[in-house]
Design brief:
By secondary structure, the chain is an alpha/beta fold. The protein is 33% helix and 16% strand. The two termini are 23 Å apart. Bound molecules: adenosine-5'-triphosphate and magnesium ion (MG). It comes from Streptomyces venezuelae.
């Protein structure tokens, strides 16, 4: 659908997406943002990698299961990377990426780094205390690819999530509108700030995953949202197929406009904030 971009190739950057409660749309935001970046700058060389670090939910692994994507490895993603016999310091992520085929021969660079293959990949993650270190190494290697890395952390608040947050440059929070979500956002923000990660937070994306937002709820918000996303069932369904919805999608339209203005480095020149 070719959105406008400003001339230079997207600057490499890594963003962690953390949600305040289950079902806010962290996974959908990760996938939609990735598809937008890929659509805008994929063909001029920007690599886009979506990583699932939601070790409890595995929502991105689940969502992308039906995307047209292939991997060289029998066991790909984080589990394959974790099981690699090469010592962690020298281990490569390349063989464990799942390459997304968008149907456009000019765009070959989008990849997913899922938890792993199979129905319940989260169950097969290492439980011997090495997960944090392994995830840290994976994020580091994925950042070495010099593209746009978006990591779905979901609601998980473990040392694994902290390790992701320490590695990436930016953190985006996802919540809903209203006072309850404000409170949850404040709690999540405090959790990050206490751990020295508050400054990486770009802001909160206020989503409406069930189409229940009321105008009045927005007025009660204590902190203004970084972005506001409308309910768009058709758009969400197209994204679930691994395709970027067209201009008619309110979700993608809103996300694209707000990413251009408020999500640093994306599609553009590394500028932070509105231009
Ligand atoms: N703006 C939206 N419009 C329409 N549907 C949406 C929107 N945001 C999210 N959804 C839908 O709501 C459901 C939950 O979204 P998603 O899985 O992205 O949330 P999540 O925060 O990742 O949840 P979990 O905590 O379970 O991982 C999905 O079916 C998704 O398609
Ligand atoms: Mg999810």
């Amino acid at each position: 659908m070719a959105y406008q971009w400003t001339g230079s190739i997207g600057v490499p950057h890594a963003v962690a997406v953390l949600s305040t409660t289950r079902g806010c749309g962290a996974t959908l935001l990760t996938a939609a943002a990735g598809l937008i970046v890929d659509d805008a700058v994929g063909r001029v060389g920007q690599t886009v990698v979506l990583m699932d670090a939601d070790t409890d939910g595995g929502g991105l692994t689940e969502l992308t299961r039906y995307w047209n994507a292939t991997s060289e490895a029998g066991v790909d993603g984080l589990i394959g990377f974790a099981e690699d016999p090469i010592e962690l310091a020298n281990r490569s992520v390349h063989g464990y990426l799942r390459h997304v085929h968008t149907g456009d021969p000019r765009r070959q660079d989008m990849a997913v780094f899922p938890l792993g293959p199979g129905d319940k990949p989260g169950e097969h993650l290492p439980t011997n205390g090495t997960l944090q270190e392994t995830v840290g190494a994976a994020v580091e290697r994925l950042m070495d690819l010099q593209g746009c890395l978006i990591v779905d952390c979901g609601v998980v608040r473990t040392p694994v999530t902290l390790e992701v947050c320490r590695q990436v440059q930016h953190i985006v929070l996802v919540g809903r509108a209203g006072p309850t979500s404000d409170l949850e956002t404040a709690e999540l923000m405090a959790w990050l700030t206490e751990r020295g990660l508050g400054e990486k937070v770009l802001g909160r994306v206020c989503n409406d995953p069930n189409g229940t937002r009321h105008g009045a709820a927005e007025v009660t918000e204590v902190t203004p949202a970084l972005m506001r996303l409308p309910y768009d069932r058709g758009g969400a369904a197209t994204i679930a197929l691994g395709r970027l919805p067209g201009h008619g999608s309110p979700l993608v339209q809103a996300l694209c406009e707000q990413m251009l203005a408020r999500w640093p480095d994306v599609l553009n020149d590394g500028a932070m904030g509105a231009r």
